[in-house]
Amino acid sequence: MEFGHITLRQIDFKTKIQSSDQFPLFCALVKMDSKQFREAAKQLVDYICDYHDNIRDRDVLPAVQPYFLEKQMPGSAPENGEPWTSVFNDIEKLIMPGVNKVMKQRQEHMRTEQKIFKGRMKLERMTHWHSPRFHAYFPTASSYPAILADMLSGALGCVGFSWISSPICTELEMSMMDWLGKMLHLPSEFLFSSHGKGGGVIQEAASESTLICMLAARSRAITKYSSSSSPKNKSPLNKLVAYCSTQAHSSVEKAALLSAVKIRSLDPDTNLSLRGETLERAIKDDREKGLIPFFVAASLGTTNSCAFDNIIEIGQIYIWLHIDAAYAGSAFICPEYRHYLNGVDKADSFNMNPHKWLLVNSDCSALWFVSLFKIIDLNTNISNLD
Ligand SMILES: *Cc1c(COP(=O)(O)O)cnc(C)c1O
C-alpha cells in the first residue's frame, strides 16, 4: 500500500476550508482515506485476535534492560509521513516482536519447549498484563466488547465537557453510572434517578478520584473557616489535615501533596482495618494543636491485602468521608458481599474501578457523590485559597 505524499508544509492553511471538508483534510494530512482505513483496521483486528489467541505462550515479564528502545529509535520524528504498512511493521519490530514468530513456532508443533521459551525471553519487551499467567499488582481488565467500544468512541471523537458539547455523551454516562450504582446497591442519594443532588461521573483513575474529592473537601473547609469570625482561622489552608490508614493506596498521600494539605497515616487494628476510635483520637490531638481535620479516605479492599476499614465507625465522625473501593468494589455487585459496603450511606463520595475486575479497558474509574454541587462549586471558590 503506497499513499500519496503530502507533507504538512504543502497544505495551504490559508485556503478557505468549509467545516464539512475538515475530516477529508485531516485524512489527507495523515495520508489515509476511508478505503485505506478499512484495510488497515481489518489487518489490525486480525493482529489483535492473534495476540490474544496466543498470549498464553508469551513470557509475561520481558528481559530487556532500561533504555533498550532509545538505541533502536530515530532521534527525531520523520520529516515525511510513512505508509501504514511500514508503521504496522514497526509494531512487530519495535513493540511486540515475535507475535508472528510465536505463531510460526506453534505451527511447527513446538519441537523443543525449552528452545522456544529462551527465544521468547529475548523477544519480549512488554509486560503482558492480560496473560492468564500474570499475577502481579492487580488485575486490569480488557475484553473484546470493551475494545469495540474504544474503537467506536475513537471514531466518534466526541468531547463531552458539557451537556451541549455532546448531549448523548453526558446522558449515556449518567445512565451507565446509575446502572452501575444500582448494581452495587448504592444508596439512592448517589444516583441521578433520585433527582436529588447526587450522581456519578467517570474518571480516568482512582488516584484522580481521590484527588478531586480531597480538593472538594478542601474547598468546603476553606469556605467554612475563612468565613468564620475567628481571625486565627482566616487562612486555614496550612492547618488542614487529612487522614488515611497506613494501608491506604499511595495515591491518597499523593493527593494530599498535590492539595498542599497535611496527611496523617493511622495504624489499623490487627485485621489491618482502620477503626473509628483511632481516627477520633487523631482528630482530637490535631484539634488541640490548632489544626483543622477535614477529610478521611477509607479503603474497602486495600491493594496490598484487600483489608476493609470500618466505615460504620468512621462514618460517625463528621469530616468528608471518601471511600476508595478501587480494587474490590466490583464484588459488592454480588449480594453475598454487599454487606461489606454497609455504612456507605455516611460517605460523601465513593469510588471503584471497573477497569480492574469488570472487563472494561483502562481507563475507567467510577466516582459517585452525594452532592455534585460540592464539585461544581470547586470552580467558583478557588479564589479563597491563600
Ligand atoms: C488500584 C488502586 C488504586 C489506584 O487506581 P488507579 O485507577 O490506577 O489510580 C487506588 N486505590 C486502591 C485501593 C487500588 O487498589
UniProtKB/TrEMBL annotation:
Protein's organism: Tetranychus urticae
GO BP term, example: catecholamine biosynthetic process
Family (UniProt): Belongs to the group II decarboxylase family.
Superkingdom assignment: Eukaryota
Keywords: Catecholamine biosynthesis, Decarboxylase, Lyase, Pyridoxal phosphate
Subunit structure, as described in the record: Homodimer.
Protein name listed in UniProt: Aromatic-L-amino-acid decarboxylase
Cellular component, GO annotation: cytoplasm
Molecular-function annotations in GO: aromatic-L-amino-acid decarboxylase activity; pyridoxal phosphate binding
Cofactor list: pyridoxal 5'-phosphate
Record PTM N6-(pyridoxal phosphate)lysine, positions in chain: K356
EC number annotated for this UniProt entry: 4.1.1.28
